[in-house]
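Q&A log
Question type: sequence-to-structure
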Amino acid sequence: MGRTQRKRKHKKISEFRSCDDDNELIKLNSWLAEQGVRRSSKLVLAVFTDTGRGVLTKKKILAGDELINLPLNLTINVTSLLMDSTFCNIFLENSKHCLLEHKESVSFQSLMAFYLVFLKAQGSNSKWHIYLENLPKSYTVPYFLPKELKHYIDTEIASVISKQKDIIESTFNIFLDILNNNVSCSPVVKNLKEYFSISVYEWAYFTVNTRCVYMDLSNILDLQNTKSSILALVNDNTKISLCPYLDMINHSPNARNETKLLISRDIENIAISKLKHDIFSDVRFSICTKNNFDPYTQVFICYGDSHNLKLITEYGFYLPSNDLDFVTFEFEQIKEFLNSNGIKLSHDQLAFVTSHGLDKDLYIDFRGLSFNFYGVLMVVKYFYSQNMDVSRLIYSAALCSNDRVLIDLILPMVRDKLISIKEATNKLENLNCECAILNNCKELMLQYVNILEQFIKC
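Response status: OK
Response body:
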C-alpha cells in the first residue's frame, strides 16, 4: 500500500507536495467518483519526502472516521475472477484437463497476478485501465536487485529471494502451459498469449503482494464446491483483494484501523454457479481509522505487525527501531557447530528435538534466545542428567532464567555470525551505490548486528 522507501530519520511532519492535480490522478479521481467510490473529502494524494506517494488529510481526522468506502464490484477479488468468463475460459477451453493436472498447484496470489496480466494486456479496453495505469511501474523489493549485487546481501534476505523466485517461475510456467494449450478463438486470449512474459508476471506478482488487503467474503460466498472452477488450481485461501485508492494509503505499525463489509440486503452463501455481475451491487467495503490525524499530515493504515525481513522482501521498505526483528539460526547450523566442538547429539536427543518441534523458530531477538533455541540447548546440556526431567524443565519457569551455561555454549557461533554480517555490511557500504533496495538491505543487516551485539554483551 504505497510500499516505498522509508528514510531512516523521520520528521514530525513530513514535507510533501500535492499531486491531485497531476493529469493521471485527475483521471483516476474522476473514474473513482463515476464508479461510486466514497472517500473523505479531507483526503488528497500527495508525494512525501520520506514515503513517496501517499494520502494527506487537509483537515483533522478523528478516530472512528471512515476513510474510504468502495463498492465491492470496484475491488478485484475472488468474485472478479470467477465472473470473468473470458478469463475462466482460458482454463476451461483447453486441450488439457488443466484443472486436474494443475490441481492445487498455485496460490491465490499467483492466480490474481495472472489475472492482473490478463487485464493489463487489454489496454484501454479494460474496465480497470485507468487504475492499472496508476499502479507503480516498479517495486523496491530485493527480488529486483541486479544479479551482480545479490551476493552482497545477507543470506537470510537471499534465501527469501530464492523462494520467491521458485514460486514465481513455477507458477509462470504453469500459466504459460495453460495458455499454450488454450483452444479459444477469443482475440483477448490471443493478445494475452503475445503479451505474457516473465517480466510482466513478476510485476503483477509484486503488485498483488505489495498492494492487496485482507478481504473475507466467506459469509456471502459459498466456496465449498470449486472442483469445476478455476479455484481448483488454488492451494490456499482467497481472502485478498486489490482496492483502488485504498492501496495508496501507506503503512505505519502505529496505525489502527477496521475494515468491514456493508451489506444492505440478505446475501448469504451464494454458490459460484449463481454469481452475476449485479449480485453484489448493494455490498460495499469500508475502512475506518482508529487514530487521530492532524491537518496536513499523512494518513496511515496498518496491515499487521511485521519484522523488517518481511517488510523489505515483500513490500520494499524498512522500518527503523522495529522490536520484532530477529536473527535466525538453522538447526543444521547449530548441529554442525556443536559437532565441531565435540558435542554430538544422540539419536534420542534428535528424536526429542524434532518430536517437540524444537528444530524450528530458532532465533535471537532483542529479548535473547527464542523459546525453541533455549529448549534445544537444554536438550544438549541436560538430556542425560540424572534427577532432571528435560521436558518439564523446558516448559517450566526455569526456561525464563538467564542460564549462562547455555548461553556460553553457543556464544562462539553467535560471534562468528556477527563477524560474517559485519563483513558483508562493510562490503555494502564500500559499494558507494545509491540504491533504495540495497539501502534497505543494509539497514536490516545493521539491525542484525545490533541484536547480536546486545546478546553477546548481556
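Response note: The first helix runs from residue 23 to 34.
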